Each structure stands twice: as C-alpha cells, then as structure tokens.
Amino acid sequence: MSHIHPIHHTVTQHTLPLKKSPAQISQRVPARHSLLKGAGSLHSLPNLRFGKSWVKAPIENVHLITDFNDASSNAEAISRYRDVLKFTDTRGQELQPFKRWNRAPKEAPDTSLIGQIKAILKTVLNAILGVFSTPKKADTIPVHSLSDIPFGNTDYAALTLQRIATSRPNKDIVVLVCDPGVGNGETRKKKITHDRSILITENYGLVIGPNNGIFSLAIKSLEEKGERYKLLPIDLEKVQQLERIRLKNPSYTLPETFHGRDVFMVAAAAIANGIAPEALCDEKRARKFTPKITPFAQSIVSLPLKASDKGTEFYGVQDRTFGNIKTNLILNAKQAEKLLAQDAVFEIRSADPTDPITPLQLPLKKFFAQVPKKDPVLYLGSTYSPKPDKRFVEIALNFDNASARLGLNPLESKKLVIQRIR
To answer: Is 275 within 8 Å of 59 (Cβ atoms)?
Structure first.
C-alpha cells in the first residue's frame, strides 16, 4: 500500500455515483433469452443489470495494447473478442435501452406498386454490381493491436495510455495488458481480491486493465480536464458465467494467468455490443476501490529553471526503441525557449549515492543534431503531461543509448537527480 498517496482523496471526489441506486435502475434480461437455449442464458447471471450508464454512444474502436510482442497471443485475444461479440449479438431487442449500436435502422418498406418495382430493380442491380446493402455486423468494430510497452513496465504503460485515451474525446475501448503480477491480488479470508478493473469516463471512452498503476497519468489528465470518471473492479464471477453460457460448459473456470484474453477482451466485446460496463463489475468492492498511483505519476515536477547547488529528484523510464529516457520532468514551450536562449546546461546523477554511474552533463537543445554523435542531450518531448500546457522532458545520447549510460532497467523506472549547473 506504499504507493497509495493522498491524491486518492481527489479521486474520490471525481468518482461520482449514479443518481439512483443500482436496484432502482436495474433492468433484468428477459427470462426467455434467445441465446443458447437449454444451456443457460444471460438471465441466469447473478446481478447482471442493464441500466443507466455513462456509455451511451456507439463504440467506434477497440485498442488492444500489450507489453509482449507475441503475435499468436494477440491474435488469440482478438479472436476471443470477436467470438464473444457475435455471441452477445442481441439484434437490437434484448438489452433495452441499448440498441444494436452498429446496426443501421431498418426503413419501413414501400408496399406500393412503384415501391415493389423499385425494390426488385435494386435487388437486380445489387446482384449485377456485387454490392449488397447489408447492415454492419458486430465484428466490424475494428480492433487495433499495439505491442509497444517494455514487459511489465507500468509507468511506460501509463504514458502510452494517457496519449491514446485522453488526447481527445473518443468513443473507444482500450484494453491495456501490462500485468507483471499476472493475476495480481491479495488473499483475504481464502478469497483473492484482484485488481482487474474498468475505468469509465463520460467523454473519453473506457479502459479495461489491471489497477496496478497503468491508469495513473490518464486519471491525472482527466482530473485536469474536469472530466468525471469512475474506476470499478470487474466481477470475475459474472465474466465466468458469461463464458459458461457461451461455451455451453457449466464447469468452465476462468484461467488465472492471461486475463487479457480471458477477462479483458470478453468484457470489451460485451460492452461493445451494448452491455453496460457497470453490469460486469463488483458493486460492493467499488465503494472502497481506489486507483493505484505510481511514484512516477505522483511526483511530476518542473525542470529546474535556475542554477542551484540543490538537485531535483525525478523518475526516468526507458524507451524500448532507441534507449531514450522519458522523464516526469515537465516544461512548457515558453520556458524552453528561455532556457535555450541562455544555453542552459544540466547535470543528471543517480538518486542513490552508492550507484556507480558517472554523472552526466548535458545541454537543453531542440533536436539531436545540435550535439555531436555520442553526446547527451536534454530536449522537450512530444508527449503532453497531464498539465495541458506542459510536455514531458526527455534524455538521449545522439546515436547511442542513454538508458544504458544511466543504468536504467527496462522493466522499471529509476529515481534520478537533476540540477542546472549553467
């Protein structure tokens, strides 16, 4: 619990409950559900409610972001999503008030003689041209797969999520799989309290993933924007019941390992097809469920603008591609221009006095070519911080690896110290 910080008091203020209790707004699925007759139905799911939700618009995209570069695993996760999406295809009737969002409404047929002639001509013309005006099916909601996160690095995952999920209002689902604990949880009274979660927002879609710090920067960004959100724990029992019905296997048990495929993508498909995300969550745990904020997100600091004998502590995280270092130091464009005009130079060292790395002196520049090859450079990155007018500062070695130079581990962030020396 050492990573839980006072910011959670702020989080609680924004995590607003619905105006009515779940009992007041619940609407059960009809008992004679059309899905898999004789094998159970969604009606048999305990407390599965389809009531009011912040998710009212059609889901437009699903993004699968992972911390492993395994094409077969990603393909399997996407396949599970499509299977569940087809299974929950409700033809626009069963999950009122949620319509089949991605199915075009049918127009009343023209029964007049002219209307019938037009219909015949249209059918013949479509057959000749090979163009059929069929409504979109559930699996046409596109899935974008990205494997760009260093394995198990939750701070890098948090940076990625902030850029994708909160840069603009959207109607997307992001499934983010960065789960170094692999089913991380805490055992209490012989029951595992897990961290599988859904982050629901009013105008920035929703995110499904583990509550292990990956939501940190997105939540800070939402708070800066004044956006309402709520973080709810997934009820694994409901997901398991849904899969037992779909697979016609009453003894099916959710695996405890790859929840990206077996829980997150299952939930994404159900939500994309009209099931309220709140319906898949644990209402009792939600009252005490708070987002975990990592030290990287908790201690965002400004780059020191004046020369000083005292350094400023910050965190650096390795970019998996070139070895550049993304930091939680922030700076706006006006401040950067002033420092550039002053030819400012900084020194970076480890926050651990026993660390053998040599301190690194580096200037602030606009781009890499302004320093010789193999020389270090500090620059204003392209990633905006939760503060809308400030961006994160980054560290690089021109044509070399800054992370190796400063002893960064790709699996975790490292605490460093920076001070302006000129």
So the answer is: no
